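Ops channel
N.P.: pipeline sanity check, posting one input/output pair.
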């Protein structure tokens, strides 16, 4: 019983830490154009999460110029960021936490 409780607490702590780190990446790189659930210059994360997979989100962040047509956009104004693999995982996971929210 104690072991399962400790494992559950460790898992929850890891999830919260990852969300917190994903939020830091958001605040550093994305916040100027995106908001979590409201339209800003770019679409809200809730809209992105409802339309895209983790791999699609990462691909678009890595190279918006080469991906915008594949996503059906007429153009892109998104800046290309040079994020680490860890930062890409964190931001894409953070975006996906908004799936199904308005």
């Amino acid at each position: 019983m104690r072991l399962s409780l400790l494992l559950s607490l460790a898992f929850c702590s890891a999830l919260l830490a990852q969300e917190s780190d994903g939020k830091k990446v958001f605040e550093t790189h994305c916040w100027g154009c995106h908001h979590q659930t409201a339209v800003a210059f770019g679409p809200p994360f809730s809209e992105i999460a409802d339309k895209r997979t983790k791999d699609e989100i990462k691909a678009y962040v890595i190279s918006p110029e080469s991906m915008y047509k594949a996503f059906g956009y007429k153009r892109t104004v998104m800046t290309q960021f040079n994020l680490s693999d860890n930062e890409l995982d964190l931001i894409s996971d953070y975006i996906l936490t908004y799936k199904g929210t308005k």
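N.P.: looks fine end to end. Residues 27 and 70 are 27 Å apart (CA to CA).
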